[in-house]
Write a structure and sequence with these properties.
Blueprint: H1 2-6, H2 8-25, H3 27-41, H4 48-61, H5 65-77, H6 82-115
Helix pairs in contact: 2-3, 2-5, 4-5, 4-6, 5-6
């Protein structure tokens, strides 16, 4: 797994760099995706934090390390507790079985990495 070799901070930075290339080469597509992301994640009937927990659970279920990195980073920024993260991961495991359990461990590693030094 790429994330466990260099860490989730390194993974998200690397993916972001590559996405910058797509922003230059495919500006309309990337703007559209960014607009969709902002609209889908803004506070509404569900809070932004709840929506990010859902997104993380989906990232775990589809086994996407970069998704895990970006959504955990956002969740740490939103003040998510480890207990909240673990409950969301429990739902991912419930719905996704053993493979989701393995990626839940990755999500916990990402949480520890992005939480380091955050008060």
């Amino acid at each position: 797994m790429a994330a466990t070799l260099g860490g989730y901070k390194e993974l998200t930075q690397s993916v972001s760099k590559q996405l910058n290339t797509l922003r230059t080469d495919l500006p309309d597509v990337m703007k559209g995706f960014g607009d969709l992301a902002r609209a889908a994640t803004r506070d509404g009937a569900l809070s932004k934090k709840t929506k990010e927990l859902i997104a993380l659970s989906l990232g775990v279920a589809v086994r996407c390390d970069a998704c895990i990195g970006f959504h955990v980073q956002a969740l740490v920024g939103l003040g998510t507790t480890k207990a909240e993260l673990e409950e969301a991961l429990a739902m991912a495991v419930y719905m996704g079985g053993g493979p989701s359990l393995m990626y839940s461990a990755n999500a916990l590693a990402a949480f520890d990495e992005f939480s380091a030094g955050v008060e």
